[in-house]
Amino acid sequence: MAEEKLLLERKHVAQMLSSEEVDKAFSYAMDYIDFLSRVKTERESVDYIKERAEAQGFREGDKDKGYFVYKSKFIALWKKGKRPISEGLRIIASHIDTPRLDLKLNPLFEDFDLAFLKTHYYGGIKKYHWVALPLALHGVVVKKDGTLVKVVIGEEDSDPLFTICDLLPHLARKKQEEKKLSEAILAENLNILVGGIPKKTEEEKKEEKEKVKKRVLELLFEKYGLTEEDFASAEVCAVPAGRARFIGLDRAFIGGYGQDDRICVYTSLTALLEVKEPEYTSLALFIDREEIGSEGNTSAKSRVFEKLVYDLIKMEGLPTDPVLFFEVMEKTKAISADVTAGIDPNYLEVHDKLNDARLGYGVVLTRYTGHGGKYMANEAHAEYVSYLRRIWDEEKVVYQVASMGKVDEGGGGTVAKYFAQYGMDIVDVGPPLLSMHSPFEVSHVLDLYMTYLAYKVFFSR
Ligand code: MN
Ligand code: MN
């Protein structure tokens, strides 16, 4: 037997692609950068996905090319397959929520003529990442009469930005530098600077308090018609401001906020939009609340997913009966589309060089996530992994099989285990990132492209 057949050979995607294919990957990356620059919240993701789908003829609740939106934060898109739904579905599930700083319900205060918004972080952040950084505010406010006001401040060149100030090094020795990294910046100090010009008052009201805060409220009222009470029914968060960009002299990478998991959102969306006449009904799910453990009615644990499958069964004129539902689930093949950690040579001590993913080596199949002892995670069966290896090899998808980090070093979870409960085969598949969960995550252009191809092949077979 020739040596190359015996040994697992890892190849950089660049070694496997023609120059035309590399050009295609870069033009795909440019569109992705545009998406990443514009779409920074769940609701913005849902709006974007809906818009792209409608432009391609998808209609709400349509049997052949349809979509379903729940609470503006969960969207599903499907394309009817050649085979009946009773033979199972092909599902790719990604998540549209990202770590960020949510405004508290009563956020606005002033001190020393500086006005701030208090925050409560959402998802796994390193708090020191969020100070001394240009921030934008994104979200919605629903006023008492039900009117929904969209807020985006800090993305246009003419917009002001926001920031959380850090302590100067000159005075940080005891307060920060002698402390543990996790304790140096406190969550309660992640207050966003929003104003510094006091409201001008008449002589008799000279002693009036909170004049900067009042001026900020006046500005919010002028622009959005909002009062301080309206924060109670607001969903506004601070996210890193500005556009995603190519990184490196060779532009090998993409740097930007929210690539966990919007890189999988974009690749699975475009894969579904472009797949022609899939064999099985293909369903792309874009889900909320993954970063905080999939809790709530728009998350992967929400039974609204079951309702959706029943609706799809009903659309084919089949009985909406639990036995058929579980038969469909058992025959379903699924991908939990999520990112993993790429090896960072600066932190080799946490990586297993033999088993962790490498940037530029293609889309990653992660058989199990979880932490030491394989706790709290789904593990894909060997038969299912064999199936994916086969279809990707046949279609020249460059992939790597990897786990995340050394055993007992840490770990994480994805939505895979929640869908596995229904009996379907599911495995995690997505690109590797560097600086994951930071305000500026880094992906590789060629991994992005391979992720898109891997999802497209999955949907088409
Ligand atoms: Mn994720
Ligand atoms: Mn995450």
Task: Describe this protein's structure.
The structure is a single chain. This protein is α/β, with parallel strands linked by helices. It has 2 domains: about 5-100 and about 255-460, 3-Layer(aba) Sandwich (Aminopeptidase); about 100-240, Aminopeptidase i, Domain 2. The protein has 13 helices and 22 strands. It has helices at about 5, 15, 20-40, 40-55, 175, 180-185, 210-225, 260-275, 305-315, 320-330, 380-395, 415-420, 445-460; strands at about 60, 65-70, 75-80, 90-95, 100-110, 115-120, 135-140, 150-155, 190-195, 235-240, 245, 255, 280-285, 335, 340, 365, 370, 400, 410, 425-430, 430-435, 440-445. Helix 3 (about 20-40) crosses helix 13 (about 445-460) and helix 8 packs across helix 13. The mean pLDDT is about 95. Bound molecules: manganese (II) ion (MN) (2 copies).
Main attributes of the structure:
about 450 residues; alpha/beta; Aminopeptidase; Aminopeptidase i, Domain 2; nine-stranded mixed sheet; six-stranded antiparallel sheet; 13 helices; 22 strands; about 30% helix; binds manganese (II) ion
Per-chain topology:
Elements: H1 3-6, H2 13-16, H3 19-38, H4 42-55, E1 59-60, E2 65-70, E3 74-79, E4 89-95, E5 100-111, E6 114-122, E7 135-142, E8 148-153, H5 173-177, H6 181-184, E9 192-195, H7 211-224, E10 234-240, E11 245-247, E12 253-256, H8 259-274, E13 281-287, H9 304-315, H10 322-330, E14 333-337, E15 340-341, E16 363-366, E17 370-371, H11 382-394, E18 399-401, E19 411-412, H12 416-420, E20 425-430, E21 432-433, E22 441-444, H13 445-460
Parallel strand pairs: 1-2, 4-13, 4-14, 14-20, 15-21, 16-18
Antiparallel strand pairs: 2-3, 3-13, 5-6, 5-10, 6-9, 7-8, 7-10, 11-12, 12-22, 16-20, 17-19
Helix pairs in contact: 3-13, 8-13
One manganese (II) ion binds at residues 95, 260-261, 290, 338-339.
